[in-house]
Automatic annotation (TrEMBL):
Gene3D superfamilies: Glycoside hydrolase/deacetylase. This is Peptidoglycan/xylan/chitin deacetylase (PgdA/CDA1 family). It holds the Pfam family Polysacc_deac_1. GO terms for molecular function: hydrolase activity, acting on carbon-nitrogen (but not peptide) bonds. It comes from Nocardia tenerifensis. PROSITE patterns: NODB (PS51677), PROKAR_LIPOPROTEIN (PS51257), TAT (PS51318). InterPro entries: Glyco_hydro/deAcase_b/a-brl, NODB_dom, Polysacc_deacetylase_ArnD, TAT_signal. Residues 96-291 form the NodB homology domain. One of its GO terms (biological process) is carbohydrate metabolic process.
Amino acid sequence: MLERGMSRRRVFGLGAAVAAGFAVTGCGTAQSDTAVAEPSSTSPYPVAGDSAVVAKTAPAPNNSPAAVVARHAGDQPQQWGVEMPGILSTFGATGKQMALTFDACGGPGNNDIDESLVNFLIAQQIPATLFLNKRWIDANQARAAQLAVNPLFELANHGVAHKPLSVTGRAAYGIAGTGSAQEAADEVWANHERLTGLVGKPPRFFRAGTAHYDDVAVAIVNELGETPVGFSINADYGATASAAKVQAAMNAAAPGAISLAHMHRPQSGTGAGMIAVLPMIRDMGFTFVHL
């Protein structure tokens, strides 16, 4: 288990996506001297990766939303999908670590919460990163506030309207994506501000609706100060999988894996599958960590 004094290392996943990864998934600056990063969190729960050396840099560019949009307004994307450079799909594990992530997609029919799943994570002291959509937060303000103060969970950004993140309107699973650099930035930033107010600090991670991005949108997210996150295990196929299928998918656990599942559909097989399989994975010697 990692000490909290160690800093995080983000490893941007690239390589072959697992077969399940393409099924339904959802509802440069100049460097000088180097120094070991200071701890960025006081959470008692372990963090993905080991200690890293970070560079002191020249003054940062203007990464206000307006400046980011202006820089990318005319850019044409060259890549599209759930995995590409700049998206965190796995991390550099120290030993047998894996990260659990759960999305709350929000919107009509998607504002519920799987209390059995969340209560199980709390009872078993299993840390997880929760990607909350702004609509879900607004519909569950008291519950979101409870999650925000529980160090077991890190709250992350799942956008405003659960759209694939694009600058051309490209769709995934029939869901139209954001249609411009401005719309992409808006999809990230409004919930960035909502989460900052809720948690008291800015979110570090973003996952687009359906987990699809184009490469321009990936750059926009990074410049807005968040890391785009994908997955290496698609655990519940957009909360459509049976409990048995969730268990089977999670059996692909490997060091550095990031699993994607959902926490807003209590009638799905996600909760039962996770409740059954997570103790097994822990018995195999895995430690669950925050991203």
